[in-house]
């Protein structure tokens, strides 16, 4: 299974299933507690966004979650963490089965996050960017008391603008460097990535959060890339101008978020490393998974509180992680 485009730039296949789950059910899928199953892998940064937002908003009971294993083959993500290697609710071994139930001739990527309609076993959507926005706007009646406003109306234009450049240059930028098939493509991606990281560092030097004075959708989207940076992107994807831990502002910002309930308590560094180093055999043909880096420094003081703002604004932090969704012991500094 090859990820590198020989001799050229990496281009992400962005053809997603864009059906939406909405309060009014206009696409045929109304918001309904317990009807849908969010399928994720903790290894995937796009899926991790949905895991974080779901937890911040308190949607655990309304939108149950299936966790696929950290690796996949050319066919699909698999439920190899479950007894019998089968999701206990959907009754399937591979996420691919839910895609084919909806579209028998489906030929695009079998991606996470995906939301599956439990009543039919068919995937509803894998449009990762819209999924988290809809969690904020369409699932509102099912939010927990004290849920933060991650996509407040007054800040949406600025959040959208920040998200757009962060996606192009950082979230997808690390992949454009890692999967570059030529020196020219790699050099361009590398320069673009670190120019944007410098821009973000300047923006965050005097502001605790990316937009406004509380956490928003923008912080969630940047965090899932930053938390993987030293463990994967610095070495595996050759994004090695400096480590995140060598960038004072971004490192403190990332630690601040990591130590905020709903962020670090969803991160599984073991799954993250096993996914990238085992699946991308065209980059890492030996399949050797590095032992480091040391994770203890994620819990060091971040000292960003004096910048002002509070993580949840007028809201409250989420409660403890549900036991069945806790990151396994030894998979991160907060795990176990």
From TrEMBL:
Q: Per the record, where is site Lowers pKa of active site Cys?
A: 233, 276
The UniProt entry's GO CC annotations, sorted and at most eight, read: cytoplasm
User: What does the record give as the active site?
Assistant: 44 (nucleophile), 175 (proton donor/acceptor)
Identify the residues that the record assigns to the GST C-terminal domain, covering every copy.
Answer: 152-276
Q: Name one GO molecular function term.
A: glutathione transferase activity
Keyword check for Transferase: yes
Q: Give me the ranges of the annotated region Disordered.
A: 300-336
InterPro entries in the record: Glutathione-S-Trfase_C-like, Glutathione-S-Trfase_C_sf, Glutathione_S-Trfase, GST_Omega-like_C, GST_Omega/GSH, Thioredoxin-like_sf
**What does the organism's lineage look like at the top?**
Bacteria, Bacillati, Actinomycetota, Actinomycetes, Kitasatosporales
| Name the record gives this protein | Putative glutathione S-transferase
């Amino acid at each position: 299974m090859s990820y590198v485009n020989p001799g050229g730039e990496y281009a992400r296949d962005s053809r997603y299933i864009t059906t939406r789950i909405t309060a009014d059910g206009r696409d045929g899928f109304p918001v309904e507690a317990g009807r849908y199953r969010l399928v994720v892998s903790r290894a995937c940064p796009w899926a991790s966004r949905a895991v974080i937002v779901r937890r911040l908003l308190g949607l655990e009971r309304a939108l149950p979650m299936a966790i696929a294993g950290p690796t996949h083959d050319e066919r699909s993500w698999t439920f190899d963490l479950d007894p019998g290697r089968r999701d206990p609710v959907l009754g399937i071994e591979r996420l691919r089965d839910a895609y084919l139930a909806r579209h028998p001739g489906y030929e695009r990527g079998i991606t996470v996050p995906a939301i599956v309609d439990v009543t039919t076993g068919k995937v509803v959507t894998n449009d990762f960017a819209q999924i988290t926005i809809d969690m904020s706007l369409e699932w509102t009646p099912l939010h927990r008391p004290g849920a933060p406003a991650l996509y407040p109306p007054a800040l949406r234009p600025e959040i959208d603008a920040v998200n757009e450049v962060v996606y192009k240059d950082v979230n997808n930028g690390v992949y454009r460097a890692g999967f570059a098939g030529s020196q020219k493509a790699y050099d361009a991606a590398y320069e673009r990535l670190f120019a944007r990281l410098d821009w973000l560092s300047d923006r965050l030097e005097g502001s605790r959060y990316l937009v406004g004075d509380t956490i928003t959708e923008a912080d969630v989207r940047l965090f899932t890339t930053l938390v993987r940076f030293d463990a994967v992107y610095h070495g595996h994807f050759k994004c090695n101008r400096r480590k995140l831990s060598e960038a004072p502002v971004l490192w403190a910002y990332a630690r601040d978020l990591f130590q905020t309930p709903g962020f670090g308590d969803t991160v599984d560094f073991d799954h993250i490393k096993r996914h990238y180093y085992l699946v991308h055999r065209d980059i890492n043909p030996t399949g050797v998974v590095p032992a480091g880096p040391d994770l203890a420094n994620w819990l060091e003081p971040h000292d960003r509180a004096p910048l002002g703002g509070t993580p949840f604004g007028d809201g409250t932090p989420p409660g403890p992680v549900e036991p069945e969704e806790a990151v396994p012991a030894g998979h991160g500094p907060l795990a176990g």
